[in-house]
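Late entry, written up from scratch paper. The run itself happened at the end of the previous shift, but nothing got recorded in the book at the time, so transcribing now.
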Amino acid sequence: MLPKQEIVAMLLAGGQGSRLGVLTKNMAKPAVPYGGKYRIIDFPLSNCVNSGIDTVGVLTQYQPLELNEYIGSGQPWDLDSMNGAGVHVLPPFQGNQRSDWYKGTANAIFQNIPFIERYHPEYVIVLSGDHIYKMDYSKMLAYHKEKGADCTISVIEVPWEEAPRFGILNTNDGGAIYEFDEKPKQPKSNKASMGIYIFNWEKLKAYLTADGADPDSDNDFGKNILPAMLHAGERMYAYEFEGYWKDVGTIESLWESNMDLLNPKVQLDLSEERWKIYSRNPVMPPQYVAAGARVQNSLVAEGCSVYGEIDFSVLFAGVYVAPGAVVKDSILMPGSRVEEGAVVQYAIVAEDAVVQKGAVVGARPEDIENKNEWGVAVVGAGAVVLPGAVVPPRAMAEPGKDYEGEAR
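Output as recorded:
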């Protein structure tokens, strides 16, 4: 019999991430590289460890191979316990009462009720695998207990113009939730759900079971479980989070969040000793910056060889920037190459992609006549931008293919 756990974390990491375009064509969104040495999933996993939660189920589905290999035994996050705790990858499976894919966020948890029951928890925390933030879940659990809540939802205030993208909560002065709208066209508040929920397990299990038996349900927390609990009068509270939080589900938000790491005014400190973000890192030699190279206000990871000009950019491990190449306001993911005379600006160059001699990827906003046409350019994993080709703003070079584009 496995030891009883007070709380079990269930991390939803199966999303397709279609808004990330070519970056998620061959990998799940939580596996996308971030910040020079991390992947998105490192943040919720590290938050669990730092919060004292040592039993984590990771629910995978779309393109899971790279994510599964990355998580492995959980050793980088100290989640490789031999006593039943630790990290467990939970893909969909066929059984007596379960079949094929996870149909929604709630169905994903429903299908894994037997996993949760092994630990006899009092509470379950449900997390998303596609957000960048540092959060102490133990404080949220203490708030949940203090309020005597059945469900606690972590919320953050977002700009009013972004509120229709989120589940929006309305609360009274004591924090009790009296209204929940999933992506409303005309939101009544700007308190957005962060996709982090703590439930009393027995209560959640009852609602998941009822939802699983409803053929008309979308099997979704935001659309079904939370409204059902609210309608039934369950005790639901909002836990207000103050700190950096970013939903990196789009090309623009992923680029912005990486650029935030270079902004001293942004309150996301990855060097904080008390709350480390752990990751699985390659064993590579130190970075090399050649004489005559120019690097300023950038993150440059191990194994990089820089001979050109780098400004306000994030370089992952093993990146090569040739003499005469210019990289500004961009993200170069592991193993990518920018060859002689190439220019990369306001762009994301994915893993093992090559920008060949004299090619141009992206453009500065001030150089675009129609500002509505500007956006981040993307080169997919393993793609080759051929010599002299131009990848314009918003364009995406397909993974593993040659990109001819327009010659300069």
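The chain has eight helices and 33 strands.
(Scratch paper discarded after transcription.)
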